[in-house]
Amino acid sequence: MATIKLNDGNEMPQVGFGCWKVDKDTCADQIFNAIEVGYRLFDGAQDYGNEKEVGEGINRALNEGIVARDELFVVSKLWNTNHAPEHVEEAFNQVLSDYKLDYLDLFLIHFPVALKYVPPSEKYPAGLTGTEDDKLRYEDVPILDTWRAMEALVKKGKVKSIGISNFTGALIDDLLRGAKIKPAVLQIEHHPYLQQKKLVEWVQSKGIAITAYSSFGPQSFLELDNKGAQSVPGLFDHKDIVSIAKKHDKTPAQVLLRWATQRGIAVIPKSNKTERLVQNLTINDFTLTDDDLAAIAKLDMGLRFNDPWDWDKIPLFV
Ligand code: NAD
């Protein structure tokens, strides 16, 4: 399993399993199966609402001796309603207790959007709003204050690495000026329709590893009735991706993942089919040519499917 050496010395597997929208009913079995197949990184989040089930799958594999804890790389993300420094550790402890683990490998700030605290006794996970009237309520927490509380988790030995997700260049630049511990990882939406070339180049030059999410582009957003996803051809059927796949005797999914890993980016595809799990894990045994890369570069249209602008006109990426 290829790994990426993080700027704090920890090693992160380059291919992992994404836990978003994994059904609670089958989640523990899927995680267990993924571990049996060879997955070692699990990308969860408070907001996914399935951390107990993810933890159940992990612990079953640990108890059966299929894997040891130090061979796994378990990730979670701080939700928007927990940005106030006094709530960061509380949220983290909830994650640990849901996973039934005693440390995490990586904890990310899910979005640089601070929303009003929702006590877990009222609603957990809080969801997008956590409010009865479904309106977003904001909280004035500068990102560096949240980051300080993340750093405190590292100092207490509760998490090995900390990072960020859905951050833009200017915000990362500002964070780096105040951070005592650099973010180890930036997780971003990244696929041929949204390549973010300058962000990737600059962030990698700062020694921060990139994890791509939604590597298959519109695929994951079709079931959410996302208008942008419905407006473009699926990447699995895109003629350029299909022809590159045929040339290498690989599937379009493998080409999309390899396109990222070949440029040093980690990927976290999600699938509930064993055959696809294996396929998504076996992607580093071929090399895309310069022509392949040039053809994929042409597909960029800056099309983002996961945008807080759609929640409440939040100007994160404007
Ligand atoms: P994805 O791009 O991994 O696509 C998943 C879809 O592709 C599913 O419909 C699946 O059935 C299908 N699929 C998977 N493997 C396939 C294969 N080999 N052939 C054909 N179809 C295949 O989707 P995603 O869930 O959006 O992203 C992956 C992970 O990234 C998430 O589970 C989550 O962990 C993370 N994520 C993070 C954020 C964030 O804000 N940080 C946002 C979205 C997703």
What are the SSEs and their pairings?
Blueprint: E1 3-5, E2 11-13, E3 17-18, H1 24-37, E4 41-43, H2 51-63, E5 73-78, H3 85-99, E6 104-109, H4 143-155, E7 159-165, H5 169-178, E8 185-189, H6 197-205, E9 209-213, H7 219-222, H8 227-230, H9 239-248, H10 252-261, E10 266-267, H11 274-281, H12 290-297, H13 309-312
Parallel strand pairs: 3-4, 4-5, 5-6, 6-7, 7-8, 8-9, 9-10
Antiparallel strand pairs: 1-2
Helix pairs in contact: 1-2, 2-3, 3-4, 9-10
This protein binds nicotinamide-adenine-dinucleotide (NAD).
Keywords:
two-stranded antiparallel sheet; NADP_OxRdtase_dom; 318 residues; oxidoreductase; eight-stranded parallel beta sheet; single chain; 13 helices; alpha/beta; 10 strands; binds nicotinamide-adenine-dinucleotide; globular
Short characterization:
38% of the residues lie in helices and 13% in strands. The chain is an alpha/beta fold.
Strand content: 5-15%
Low-confidence stretches: none
**Which ligands are bound?**
nicotinamide-adenine-dinucleotide
Shape: globular
Average residue-wise pLDDT: 97
Helix fraction, binned, reads 25-40%
Widest beta sheet: strand line-up? 3-4-5-6-7-8-9-10
| Intertermini distance | 37 Å
Describe this structure in words.
The model has no long low-confidence stretch (mean pLDDT 97). The protein has 13 helices and ten strands. The protein has an eight-stranded parallel beta sheet with strand order 3-4-5-6-7-8-9-10. A two-stranded antiparallel sheet has the order 1-2. The chain has helices at 24-37, 51-63, 85-99, 143-155, 169-178, 197-205, 219-222, 227-230, 239-248, 252-261, 274-281, 290-297, 309-312, and strands at residues 3-5, 11-13, 17-18, 41-43, 73-78, 104-109, 159-165, 185-189, 209-213, 266-267. By secondary structure, the protein is α/β, with parallel strands linked by helices. The longest helix is centred in the N-terminal third of the chain and has 15 residues, at 85-99. 38% of the residues lie in helices and 13% in strands. The structure holds nicotinamide-adenine-dinucleotide (NAD). Nicotinamide-adenine-dinucleotide binds at residues 18-20, 43, 110, 165-166, 187, 213-216, 219-220, 236, 251, 253, 268-271, 276, 279-280, 306. Nicotinamide-adenine-dinucleotide (NAD) binds next to helix 7 and helix 11.
